[in-house]
Amino acid sequence: MKTVNKTSKYKSTLGFVDLLFNLLIGFVFLFLLAFILINPVAKKNTFEPKAEYLIVLTWNDRSRNDIDLWIKDDADNIVSFNGKDIALMNLDRDDLGQRNDTLDTSVDNKPRESKEEIFVNREVISIRSKSDRSFSVTTHYYSGYGIEEDVTVEIIQVNPYKILKVKKFNLEERGVEKFVASFDVRNGNVIFTDNETRIATSKQLYMKYGAP
Questions:
Q1: Per-residue pLDDT tens for 82-130?
Q2: Which domain holds residue 205?
Q3: CA–CA distances in Å: residue 190 to residues 36, 100, 160, 183, 193
Q4: How far apart, in whole angstroms, are the C-alpha atoms of residue 151 and residue 167?
Q5: Which of 79, 146, 170, 178 is a good FRET partner for 46, with 20 to 30 A between their CA atoms?
Q6: Residues 59 and 151: beta-carbon distance below 8 Å
Q7: 3 found inside a domain
Protein backbone atom coordinates (compact mmCIF):
# COMPACT_ATOMS: atom_id res chain seq x y z
CA MET A 1 0.00 0.00 0.00
CA LYS A 2 1.37 3.37 -1.05
CA THR A 3 2.25 5.77 1.74
CA VAL A 4 1.21 9.37 1.26
CA ASN A 5 3.32 12.10 2.89
CA LYS A 6 0.75 14.24 4.62
CA THR A 7 3.05 17.32 4.59
CA SER A 8 3.79 17.29 0.82
CA LYS A 9 0.72 19.35 0.00
CA TYR A 10 2.15 22.19 2.10
CA LYS A 11 5.46 22.31 0.21
CA SER A 12 6.03 25.18 -2.33
CA THR A 13 8.74 26.32 -4.81
CA LEU A 14 7.82 30.00 -4.47
CA GLY A 15 10.71 30.70 -2.13
CA PHE A 16 13.20 29.23 -4.58
CA VAL A 17 11.69 31.25 -7.44
CA ASP A 18 11.92 34.42 -5.36
CA LEU A 19 15.57 33.68 -4.64
CA LEU A 20 16.36 33.23 -8.35
CA PHE A 21 14.47 36.41 -9.23
CA ASN A 22 16.37 38.43 -6.63
CA LEU A 23 19.68 37.04 -7.88
CA LEU A 24 18.73 38.03 -11.44
CA ILE A 25 17.90 41.57 -10.35
CA GLY A 26 21.20 41.76 -8.51
CA PHE A 27 23.18 40.67 -11.58
CA VAL A 28 21.34 43.18 -13.79
CA PHE A 29 22.03 45.98 -11.30
CA LEU A 30 25.74 45.09 -11.11
CA PHE A 31 25.94 44.99 -14.92
CA LEU A 32 24.33 48.43 -15.26
CA LEU A 33 26.62 49.84 -12.57
CA ALA A 34 29.70 48.47 -14.33
CA PHE A 35 28.49 49.86 -17.69
CA ILE A 36 28.01 53.34 -16.21
CA LEU A 37 31.47 53.27 -14.63
CA ILE A 38 33.05 52.21 -17.92
CA ASN A 39 31.11 54.81 -19.97
CA PRO A 40 30.59 57.84 -17.75
CA VAL A 41 27.90 60.29 -18.80
CA ALA A 42 29.48 63.26 -20.55
CA LYS A 43 29.15 66.56 -18.79
CA LYS A 44 26.62 68.66 -20.62
CA ASN A 45 28.69 71.83 -20.71
CA THR A 46 32.12 70.30 -21.34
CA PHE A 47 31.97 71.20 -25.04
CA GLU A 48 28.99 72.88 -26.60
CA PRO A 49 29.77 74.41 -29.99
CA LYS A 50 27.34 77.17 -30.81
CA ALA A 51 26.54 79.35 -33.77
CA GLU A 52 23.46 81.39 -34.52
CA TYR A 53 24.35 82.47 -38.06
CA LEU A 54 26.81 81.18 -40.67
CA ILE A 55 28.23 82.94 -43.71
CA VAL A 56 29.59 80.33 -46.12
CA LEU A 57 31.79 81.17 -49.12
CA THR A 58 32.54 78.47 -51.71
CA TRP A 59 34.31 78.45 -55.06
CA ASN A 60 35.74 75.93 -57.53
CA ASP A 61 37.25 73.10 -55.47
CA ARG A 62 40.11 72.70 -57.94
CA SER A 63 40.93 76.40 -58.08
CA ARG A 64 44.28 77.71 -56.86
CA ASN A 65 42.89 81.20 -56.41
CA ASP A 66 42.71 82.60 -52.87
CA ILE A 67 39.27 84.10 -52.23
CA ASP A 68 38.49 85.68 -48.87
CA LEU A 69 35.38 86.33 -46.83
CA TRP A 70 35.05 89.53 -44.81
CA ILE A 71 32.51 90.69 -42.22
CA LYS A 72 32.20 93.89 -40.21
CA ASP A 73 29.71 94.83 -37.50
CA ASP A 74 28.41 98.26 -36.53
CA ALA A 75 31.15 98.62 -33.90
CA ASP A 76 33.82 98.28 -36.62
CA ASN A 77 34.83 94.80 -35.48
CA ILE A 78 36.20 93.04 -38.55
CA VAL A 79 36.78 89.32 -39.09
CA SER A 80 38.93 88.02 -41.95
CA PHE A 81 42.26 86.23 -42.37
CA ASN A 82 43.83 89.28 -40.65
CA GLY A 83 41.83 88.65 -37.47
CA LYS A 84 39.86 85.44 -37.19
CA ASP A 85 38.08 85.80 -33.84
CA ILE A 86 36.54 88.93 -32.39
CA ALA A 87 33.20 90.07 -30.91
CA LEU A 88 31.61 86.60 -31.10
CA MET A 89 32.45 86.32 -34.82
CA ASN A 90 34.88 83.64 -35.98
CA LEU A 91 36.54 82.58 -39.25
CA ASP A 92 37.04 78.82 -39.11
CA ARG A 93 39.81 78.60 -41.74
CA ASP A 94 41.68 80.84 -44.16
CA ASP A 95 41.29 78.75 -47.32
CA LEU A 96 44.08 79.49 -49.81
CA GLY A 97 42.64 77.47 -52.67
CA GLN A 98 44.43 74.28 -53.64
CA ARG A 99 47.55 75.43 -51.82
CA ASN A 100 46.34 74.26 -48.42
CA ASP A 101 44.23 71.31 -49.57
CA THR A 102 47.17 68.89 -49.27
CA LEU A 103 48.45 66.85 -46.34
CA ASP A 104 51.99 65.45 -46.54
CA THR A 105 51.63 61.90 -45.17
CA SER A 106 55.23 60.81 -45.77
CA VAL A 107 57.36 59.39 -42.96
CA ASP A 108 61.03 58.46 -42.78
CA ASN A 109 60.64 55.22 -44.71
CA LYS A 110 58.38 56.64 -47.41
CA PRO A 111 59.07 59.04 -50.29
CA ARG A 112 58.21 62.71 -49.86
CA GLU A 113 55.66 62.37 -52.65
CA SER A 114 53.22 60.67 -50.26
CA LYS A 115 50.32 63.11 -49.99
CA GLU A 116 46.64 63.19 -49.18
CA GLU A 117 44.62 65.74 -51.12
CA ILE A 118 41.15 66.92 -50.18
CA PHE A 119 39.93 69.52 -52.64
CA VAL A 120 37.44 71.76 -50.86
CA ASN A 121 37.49 75.53 -51.24
CA ARG A 122 35.29 76.96 -48.51
CA GLU A 123 35.45 79.63 -45.85
CA VAL A 124 32.90 79.89 -43.04
CA ILE A 125 32.31 82.75 -40.62
CA SER A 126 30.12 82.02 -37.62
CA ILE A 127 28.22 84.56 -35.53
CA ARG A 128 27.64 83.15 -32.07
CA SER A 129 25.09 85.63 -30.78
CA LYS A 130 21.61 86.90 -31.61
CA SER A 131 22.22 90.22 -29.92
CA ASP A 132 21.03 93.31 -31.77
CA ARG A 133 23.77 94.29 -34.22
CA SER A 134 24.33 95.23 -37.84
CA PHE A 135 26.65 93.39 -40.21
CA SER A 136 28.16 93.87 -43.65
CA VAL A 137 29.63 91.01 -45.67
CA THR A 138 31.93 91.12 -48.70
CA THR A 139 34.09 88.73 -50.69
CA HIS A 140 37.56 89.61 -51.99
CA TYR A 141 39.80 88.10 -54.68
CA TYR A 142 43.03 88.19 -52.69
CA SER A 143 45.48 86.42 -54.98
CA GLY A 144 45.54 84.03 -57.87
CA TYR A 145 46.63 83.35 -61.42
CA GLY A 146 44.70 85.97 -63.37
CA ILE A 147 41.76 83.63 -63.88
CA GLU A 148 38.29 84.91 -63.03
CA GLU A 149 36.44 83.07 -60.29
CA ASP A 150 32.78 82.28 -59.73
CA VAL A 151 31.88 82.29 -56.04
CA THR A 152 28.77 81.58 -53.99
CA VAL A 153 27.95 83.05 -50.59
CA GLU A 154 25.19 81.72 -48.34
CA ILE A 155 23.87 83.42 -45.21
CA ILE A 156 22.33 80.79 -42.95
CA GLN A 157 20.32 80.96 -39.75
CA VAL A 158 21.17 77.96 -37.58
CA ASN A 159 18.39 77.85 -34.95
CA PRO A 160 15.98 77.12 -36.54
CA TYR A 161 17.86 76.21 -39.69
CA LYS A 162 17.03 78.43 -42.65
CA ILE A 163 18.97 79.69 -45.66
CA LEU A 164 18.35 83.43 -45.55
CA LYS A 165 20.19 84.51 -48.69
CA VAL A 166 22.25 83.06 -51.52
CA LYS A 167 24.33 85.27 -53.81
CA LYS A 168 26.58 84.32 -56.72
CA PHE A 169 29.34 86.52 -58.10
CA ASN A 170 31.96 86.59 -60.76
CA LEU A 171 35.25 88.01 -59.48
CA GLU A 172 36.98 89.10 -62.64
CA GLU A 173 40.54 89.58 -61.43
CA ARG A 174 42.84 89.84 -58.45
CA GLY A 175 41.98 92.71 -56.11
CA VAL A 176 38.26 92.80 -56.88
CA GLU A 177 35.98 93.05 -53.84
CA LYS A 178 32.23 92.67 -54.12
CA PHE A 179 29.50 93.46 -51.65
CA VAL A 180 27.46 90.44 -50.55
CA ALA A 181 24.87 91.72 -48.07
CA SER A 182 24.20 93.91 -45.08
CA PHE A 183 21.71 92.93 -42.43
CA ASP A 184 20.45 93.88 -39.00
CA VAL A 185 19.66 91.44 -36.20
CA ARG A 186 16.78 92.78 -34.15
CA ASN A 187 15.11 90.69 -31.44
CA GLY A 188 16.48 87.55 -33.07
CA ASN A 189 15.11 88.47 -36.50
CA VAL A 190 17.27 89.21 -39.57
CA ILE A 191 16.42 92.24 -41.67
CA PHE A 192 18.43 92.79 -44.85
CA THR A 193 19.38 96.36 -45.72
CA ASP A 194 20.98 98.22 -48.64
CA ASN A 195 24.05 99.57 -46.87
CA GLU A 196 26.52 98.59 -49.58
CA THR A 197 30.12 98.92 -48.49
CA ARG A 198 33.67 97.70 -49.00
CA ILE A 199 35.79 96.24 -46.21
CA ALA A 200 38.96 94.62 -47.57
CA THR A 201 39.71 97.51 -49.94
CA SER A 202 38.44 100.26 -47.67
CA LYS A 203 40.62 103.17 -46.60
CA GLN A 204 40.33 101.95 -43.00
CA LEU A 205 41.99 98.61 -43.86
CA TYR A 206 44.52 100.24 -46.16
CA MET A 207 45.71 102.45 -43.33
CA LYS A 208 45.94 99.49 -40.95
CA TYR A 209 47.41 96.73 -43.12
CA GLY A 210 48.40 98.34 -46.41
CA ALA A 211 47.07 97.26 -49.79
CA PRO A 212 45.44 93.81 -49.67
A1: 898 999 999 988 776 655 555 555 566 555 566 666 778 899 999 999 9
A2: 53-209
A3: 44, 34, 13, 6, 10
A4: 8
A5: 79
A6: yes
A7: no
